[in-house]
Each structure stands twice: as structure tokens, then as C-alpha cells.
Design brief:
The protein is mostly helical. Helices cover 65% and strands 9% of the residues. The protein has one domain. The chain has a three-stranded antiparallel beta sheet with strand order 1-2-3. A hairpin with a 2-residue loop joins strand 2 and strand 3.
Length: 190
């Protein structure tokens, strides 16, 4: 029902127009028609209750407190499961806040990077306090390095190819992955 509301429909139309302009810019750049650097995200307003930014001439705005609440909940989940929060935050930013994929990808990656550093540091610091339990909660550096190498290569490839995929395809792939993981998690219970 939320997706059918007039507010969301207007945001979708705005997002589709923005994506079209982004694709046009990519095409111009590939044909050598554009020599100036690409546009950056420009902060317009930042307050505890509202964040507004400009991307490709369009203004996007959202409730900063609502984002804080989402990121707080995601932080709890990330800390519990040891996952990067960006993979959970990005779908919220796209589906609920109506922000374009191209504008939030970098911010989601930065979020994941920062929360990962804090998480590793925290688990390293508290590990001695849990030694008596026999549980290994300190990070496994070799396994983490393997994850990091794969993630680094994957992020590079994703950043390079995202401009060739429509936002709709990216959302569909993300939705299928989330649904698959949801079914796997629920099936463990039964």
C-alpha cells in the first residue's frame, strides 16, 4: 500500500527522471562528448530533523531523526550478526526514503566501512572479558581478510558496472536476494 501512495509515486517519477539524466550523462561520457568532471552530491541543509541534498539538479530531503532510528536498529543487527549495515540501510533509503540508488551507494559503503571498523575494535576489546566462557568472540583475522578481499573486488566491480544497470534491475536483484535470505532464515526455525 505504501508503494501506491501519491507521495511515493511522485518520488518514483522523480527518481526515474533522475536515472534517465544519469544514463544520458554516462552515454555522453562514453562517446567523449563530456570533458568536465561529473556532478557531486551537494549538501543543502543539515539539521537534527532534516537533511537535504542536491544530486543532478534535483533536491532530495528526508527526516534525519527517522534515518537515525533506522541506523540505530541496523547497528544492533549489524553488531549481533557481524554484517555491514550498508546492505540493510541501502534498501531502506531507496524504498522508504525514496532516494536514488546512485546517490546513496557511496554513503552506504562509507557507513559499512565505519561500522565495520568500530565493530572489529569493539569485539577485539571485549574478547578478554569473555575468555572464561570458552567462546571465541575476537575477530578471525584470516577469515576477515578473505571476506575483505572478496568484498573489495566486488565493491569495485559493482561501482564500475552500476551505471549500466537500471535502478529497477538493481532493486529487483536486491529484492530477490533479500527474499531468498529471508526464506532461509525462516526455514531454520521450522
Amino acid at each position: 500500500m505504501y508503494e501506491l501512495s501519491p507521495r511515493v509515486s511522485a518520488k518514483k517519477a522523480k527518481g526515474a527522471e533522475l536515472e534517465e539524466r544519469f544514463r544520458k550523462r554516462v552515454g555522453e561520457k562514453e562517446r567523449g562528448e563530456v570533458s568536465r568532471p561529473g556532478r557531486k552530491i551537494r549538501s543543502v541543509e543539515f539539521s537534527p530533523t532534516r537533511y537535504t541534498f542536491e544530486f543532478y539538479g534535483e533536491i532530495f530531503s528526508f527526516n534525519a531523526l527517522a534515518l537515525f532510528a533506522v541506523t540505530f536498529a541496523v547497528g544492533i543487527i549489524s553488531g549481533t550478526y557481524g554484517i555491514g549495515g550498508g546492505s540493510i540501510i541501502a534498501p531502506f533509503l531507496i524504498a522508504i526514503f525514496g532516494l536514488p540508488v546512485y546517490a546513496i551507494a557511496g554513503a552506504a559503503l562509507l557507513s559499512t566501512f565505519l561500522t565495520s571498523i568500530v565493530g572489529v575494535s569493539f569485539y577485539t576489546l571485549i574478547a578478554p572479558f569473555y575468555a572464561y566462557t570458552g567462546l571465541a568472540i575476537a575477530p578471525d583475522w584470516k577469515l576477515g581478510a578473505l571476506f575483505g578481499i572478496g568484498g573489495l573486488i566486488g565493491m569495485y566491480c559493482g561501482a564500475r558496472v552500476q551505471k549500466y544497470f537500471p535502478a529497477r534491475a538493481i532493486k529487483l536483484i536486491l529484492g530477490v536476494v533479500i527474499m531468498f535470505l529471508s526464506v532461509k532464515y525462516i526455514s531454520i526455525i521450522f
